[in-house]
């Protein structure tokens, strides 16, 4: 395939930057190699000082695989490094204590399937419950469109990444998982997704938003690189992440205002600035489906109008299946829907959704009254893995029981003072309740994802960093990948390319900053980072290199991106992934660089 001159220049730039990053990565890894929590320093064991330190040092949990299978359970239950302080299930105990060692492959397979289902739960909760409520909140607060995009909608799209990072930073042993996931997702989105968009639809990049987002993201990566070098994040460091994000939001608002003022438009009014609602791919059969939707609904509309009863409204509201849609969908869609139905049913029972685009704002009187009981109950039982919910007041009455009583009292008041046909004036409050309930659902599921990944890392003797940059990064980026590529395929490549850089800025700045800040609330004002040596520096260098490469090559091509640029980015990601895995399995060592 012949490449354009701009594409050949991109390859040349990439080669030069790769050479520079190898040298930088080697020096950074040399500075950080002493803190590798998984590998023993190459010092003679005859040294008495080192021997004393070695005896005082706790044994890493992954070393359980070096023991005899009869010692696995005792090792897991007595080693402090194997203790998981959060989550509802003890996955390490299930692997090494509950099942016999001969069934280890079966248990790992079940854990892998459970991990896939957890990612499915994250996607369904974020897409159908978390994002719509955030959209409703931003609409009720009358935020301008550009402010909503970089705040509420960015939070909605990046919820799995942010909550996974917050959970991982709660334990120094899994901090590498958060770093690997944030950096790995950044490399994946800025290379694979951005390259896929360029392959699908060559286009012209919006120059100013691209340069703005690239600069802010490079600053965020440099800030994280500095924190990794010092192996700790202080209170000032955590606040600097959040402060940089606030400065980014203000920059977006001011730049948009200046640009529109030059055009004579001014800042968009609040009423017209509400965020666009992205349609569910399941609801679309073809690009012309919206044209025929009115005819389709007219066919099934009853001849005589009739009012639905309360029980009928409740039954219809909690049913995640549409029989008409089920009959006209493919077998693959039906199979996938079968796995989603239990998740959607539980979420419909526990998370209210306010939709400003509907005439009644999705007001379901009996179900919304039920939400006043179930949503607070979910919040209580998922916070700190149920530790607060099971606490008994004066040793007698549980906290969750008090939540049920208060919720039932409020539900009775709402039910008696409202009607089925008309939403109350305070219906927008349910959007905040739905936002809180869905956020805690996502946080609880993200905790289980982190624990499963850590367990798989112990079983396969893999570092948290490599698990973060592969499984966790891929799982959390699936939604962004499909949505951005679908957007590009339908003729909006500029919008999809901008989303590649805008969303991950929020994930890194808020994920690291908020995660560390929440850990500091426990009294420890310094978050220590246990890194995995050379691999972390390769990951940080690869992300920085991809950003610098795009920052130089895109303007060099006159902001005209073609298929050659997309191929270059995909090859870069394959090279990065190969180097990362070879480093993890010790094929590439520091001495070889």
UniProtKB/TrEMBL annotation:
GO BP annotations, alphabetical order: calcium export from the mitochondrion; intracellular calcium ion homeostasis
Topology within the bilayer: Multi-pass membrane protein
Molecular functions per Gene Ontology: calcium:sodium antiporter activity
Transmembrane portions of the chain: 102-126, 147-169, 175-198, 210-230, 236-258, 397-416, 428-446, 452-474, 495-514, 534-552, 564-583
Signal peptide start-end: 1-28
Annotated region (Disordered), positions in chain: 264-295
Keywords, comma-separated and alphabetical: Antiport, Calcium, Calcium transport, Ion transport, Membrane, Signal, Transmembrane, Transmembrane helix, Transport
Domain Sodium/calcium exchanger membrane region: 112-252, 431-581
Domain of life: Eukaryota
GO terms for cellular component: membrane
Subcellular localization, as worded in the UniProt entry: Membrane
PANTHER family (UniProt xref): MITOCHONDRIAL SODIUM_CALCIUM EXCHANGER PROTEIN (PTHR12266:SF0), NA+/CA2+ K+ INDEPENDENT EXCHANGER (PTHR12266)
Name of the protein in its database record: Solute carrier family 8 member B1
Organism: Chelydra serpentina
